[in-house]
Amino acid sequence: MTVNPPISSVKIGGNNVSEKSIPPLKCFAFQNATEQAWWDKTGPLLARILQSAQYSVQDQYLYMTLYRTVLIPRLGPHPHTWDSFITYSGIPVEFSINLQQHGPPTARIGWEPVSQKSGSPADPINHDTISLAIDTMTQLNLKGFDTKFLHHMIGCFTATPAEAAEVDRDQLYLLRMKNQVSFGLDLKGGEVSVKCYLYPALKSYLTGNSYRKLLDGAIQSLGDEVSYPALDTIHEYLEGAGMYNQYSFLGIDCTGVSKSRLKIYNTIQDVTWSKLQDIWTLGGRFGSHATTQRGLQFIQQFWQLLTSDQDKMAVGIWSYELAPGSTDFPNPKYYFIMHGMSDMENAQAIVKFYDSIGWHDLAASYIDSVKGYFPNFESGETSNLIQYVSMAYSEKTGVYLSVYYHSSL
């Protein structure tokens, strides 16, 4: 099966990434040793990712400045003491590159704002730190950024400090129920678009309300401002299959209410190919849908490359994306968890997949790309550098694939 390569035929990686070609990283002053440590451990990797994806020099400087001035001061202590939900290692930042058939690569930053107070009696569930981070993003005048829907959903899906005070702090840490809000920043075309991820486990625990009840209540309370007609179909499938759990979470766009997508995320252990098929088609409800079937073929190709045709992977994460007002089928996205597997073998599987769909330039340069990112990759002994690969498919984007990396050198 062959699809057209990304429109710019960008060569991600290879010998283009060098110390000389990375934007200078020594032009910033730091308030303290913690900021310096986060910058030293994560800044060079982000610079290499931007450069390898052929961002213009102007945009590289723009996004590195954004990272230094807005995110670095909000990553908390180094080494980290707040165990973030967004990465396996617990660090509060994550870098990825998205590739799609009909568009240029996009670098992304996953971020859970953290401060010195996060997890302490002064801010036990990181509530105040998140609020201050939102205030800062508001001051940036980002194109399309809107906080009305964001604040509404945070209010519906997260606990307040007063509510959380009813639960023993040690229990919160044990269950990782303290994590409630994180963000994703898409760096594209000189602009930044922001997504928010909401983790309702604590709110559900304190109120006794299920994920579905919290979400339905949040949407219904908006009245006629927005609707997601296919949401009941997702609820019907996930509740029927018993797949809502404490790790279920929600994604929204930080835009106006009527423009924001909903993304329903879930996690499953010991996933088999037959279960993945069931997830992708919502229990067969969209099994005959042409776009669904087309995407499932690409998913199967990558599954076979990763598993050598064995029938199980330890963990899987997936989402269903809903556009506001749309009655179309929910667009599925599946996340192949690679943490703990050989990075070299995972990279070789990615190369084979790129080749199989006709992205030959990307396939030829990918191993060199990861070598440029991580000096220790070439040893063949690492198993945490390539964290996971997500994949979706639509007629608009074609194959839509993102590779997520361990974001600290």
Automatic annotation (TrEMBL):
InterPro entries: ABBA, ABBA_DMATS-like, ABBA_NscD-like
Protein's GO biological process: alkaloid metabolic process
GO MF term set: transferase activity, transferring alkyl or aryl (other than methyl) groups
Ranges in a coiled coil: none
Pfam families to which the protein is assigned, alphabetical: Trp_DMAT
Residues that, per the record, bind L-tryptophan: 94, 199
Entry superkingdom: Eukaryota
Statement: the UniProt record of this protein carries the keyword Transferase: yes
Keywords in alphabetical order: Transferase
Iron as UniProt keyword: no
Binding of dimethylallyl diphosphate, residues: 108, 195, 197, 261, 263, 265, 335, 400, 404
Protein family: Belongs to the tryptophan dimethylallyltransferase family.
Name of this chain's protein: Aromatic prenyltransferase
The species this protein was found in: Penicillium coprophilum
